[in-house]
Structure formats: structure tokens, C-alpha cells
Design brief:
Layout (H helix, E strand, L loop, with lengths): L2 H8 L12 H10 L9 H9 L3 H13 L21 E4 L6 H9 L6 E4 L6 E4 L1
Antiparallel strand pairs: 1-3, 2-3
Helix pairs in contact: 3-4
Length: 127
């Protein structure tokens, strides 16, 4: 697999995770995947449920992002309920321009992820 192919498959940041999460981090990831508290101090609430301090929750989340264990931390909107939709797009990218195309496509915050395909339209991405 070429480096450019890996970059496209690995996600928006283009790099695979540097490590595996430990047990506390796995519990934290599970806790934040559902209903995240809407309060003045949501990280303190998450921490209290897990026996962690607010600062430790924030530090661990930052570490997970820095090490690419998580590629994103933020709200997930139900776009359909807001009147929008997701779109799968595909383009034909010459091999010689693959790396620059990956960088250009991934630079748009609207792009959730992209994939390389064995097809005339060889880069597919979700908006």
C-alpha cells in the first residue's frame, strides 16, 4: 500500500493511531459517545461518572487526539433533521497528483473522510 493510499484511508488527519487506548481511556471513549452533558462543566460531569478529575478528562482527550487514537472530538449533528443531507462524491485523480489531491480534499472541514478505490473515479469522499 502506498503512503498516499494510507493517507486517504487513515482518515482526515491522514495518520494511523500511534497507540492503543488504555482501560481508563476506553471507558472515557465509551462515556462520551452517547449523550454528552450540556452544562457549564461537561468534562467535570464525565469525570465524576468515571472517577476522574475534569482536568484529567480534558488531558486524556487531548492525548487521544494528539496520538490519533481519536481523529475528532466534537458534536455529531443529525443533518437530516436540520434539513440537510450527506453526499458521497467521487473524482478521478491521476496517480502523480494523488498526495496533493488527498491534502486538498482533506483540507475542507466538510469532508468527513475519503477512500481510494480501484475505479476510474479513484477517490471517494463523504461531505
Amino acid at each position: 500500500m502506498s503512503e498516499a493510499h494510507s493517507a486517504a484511508v487513515a482518515g482526515r488527519r491522514g495518520v494511523a493511531a500511534k497507540r492503543t487506548p488504555d482501560e481508563v481511556e476506553r471507558r472515557l471513549i465509551n462515556a462520551i459517545q452517547g449523550e454528552f452533558p450540556l452544562s457549564e462543566r461537561p468534562f467535570a460531569e464525565v469525570g465524576a461518572a468515571l472517577g476522574l478529575s475534569e482536568d484529567e478528562v480534558i488531558a486524556r482527550l487531548q492525548s487521544l487526539l494528539d496520538d490519533r487514537v481519536l481523529t475528532r472530538f466534537g458534536p455529531m449533528y443529525q443533518i437530516e433533521r436540520m434539513g440537510g443531507a450527506f453526499c458521497l462524491a467521487a473524482i478521478a485523480v491521476p496517480e502523480a497528483q494523488w498526495a496533493s489531491a488527498v491534502e486538498a480534499v482533506n483540507a475542507f472541514p466538510e469532508v468527513a473522510h475519503n477512500y481510494r478505490r480501484e475505479h476510474a473515479l479513484n477517490m471517494w469522499f463523504v461531505l
